[in-house]
TrEMBL record:
<feature type="compositionally biased region" description="Basic residues">
    <location>
        <begin position="66"/>
        <end position="76"/>
    </location>
</feature>
<comment type="similarity">
    <text>Belongs to the universal ribosomal protein uL4 family.</text>
</comment>
<dbReference type="GO" id="GO:0019843">
    <property type="term" value="F:rRNA binding"/>
</dbReference>
<dbReference type="GO" id="GO:0003735">
    <property type="term" value="F:structural constituent of ribosome"/>
</dbReference>
<dbReference type="Pfam" id="PF00573">
    <property type="entry name" value="Ribosomal_L4"/>
</dbReference>
<comment type="function">
    <text>Forms part of the polypeptide exit tunnel.</text>
</comment>
<comment type="subunit">
    <text>Part of the 50S ribosomal subunit.</text>
</comment>
<dbReference type="InterPro" id="IPR013005">
    <property type="entry name" value="Ribosomal_uL4-like"/>
</dbReference>
<protein>
    <recommendedName>
        <fullName>Large ribosomal subunit protein uL4</fullName>
    </recommendedName>
</protein>
<keyword id="KW-0694">RNA-binding</keyword>
<dbReference type="InterPro" id="IPR002136">
    <property type="entry name" value="Ribosomal_uL4"/>
</dbReference>
<dbReference type="GO" id="GO:1990904">
    <property type="term" value="C:ribonucleoprotein complex"/>
</dbReference>
<comment type="function">
    <text>One of the primary rRNA binding proteins, this protein initially binds near the 5'-end of the 23S rRNA. It is important during the early stages of 50S assembly. It makes multiple contacts with different domains of the 23S rRNA in the assembled 50S subunit and ribosome.</text>
</comment>
<keyword id="KW-0699">rRNA-binding</keyword>
<dbReference type="InterPro" id="IPR023574">
    <property type="entry name" value="Ribosomal_uL4_dom_sf"/>
</dbReference>
<feature type="region of interest" description="Disordered">
    <location>
        <begin position="66"/>
        <end position="99"/>
    </location>
</feature>
<keyword id="KW-0687">Ribonucleoprotein</keyword>
Amino acid sequence: MKAKIITLDNAAAGEIDLADEVFGVAVRKDIMSRMVNYQLAKRRAGTHKVKGRSEVNGSTAKIYRQKGTGRARHGDKKAPQFRGGGQVFGPHPRDHSHSMPKKVRALAMRSALSAKQADGKLIILDDATLDSPKTKVLKDKLAGLGWGNALFVGGPEVDGNMALAVRNIPGVDLLPTQGANVYDILRRDLLVLTKAAVEGLEARLK
């Protein structure tokens, strides 16, 4: 399929052929949902921890005798029903990540790219570079284009000036080609790919 190429100054810069097997597949929302869960689970630290009955500080002596008091039977004061006692079945450090086949991950990426293309939210940019690392310059360009919430994906290496300019603009992100992922694509309204990014993604997903 054909797509128009523009510049950051909103000038036409030709056309590009987008591979149908990458940007024109059937959108699988279920696969994209699995992929987002996979990514978010993988980034969890898993450092949550509470103290159990054997870990809290306190005496191990029985708090009062077993019989004759008319009260319930109890052991030591570290039992969970007492204030200051241990937590029952509380969280412990663990790895939250789970596995997902490479083919499913690739399908999720193709679905995300195709969803943006189908919704008219995919924009092909000639090049994501700036002459100076000025946030105001880029902000003015984005305002002129009407791009308030966008993900830019550059080539293998992102432009240094562009990286410095974009990092202080809320709602706008910049990633190299190898950093493009389903979660970041879906969380932004617009997906802006450079020509180098298109080539890199097609080589990766064909």
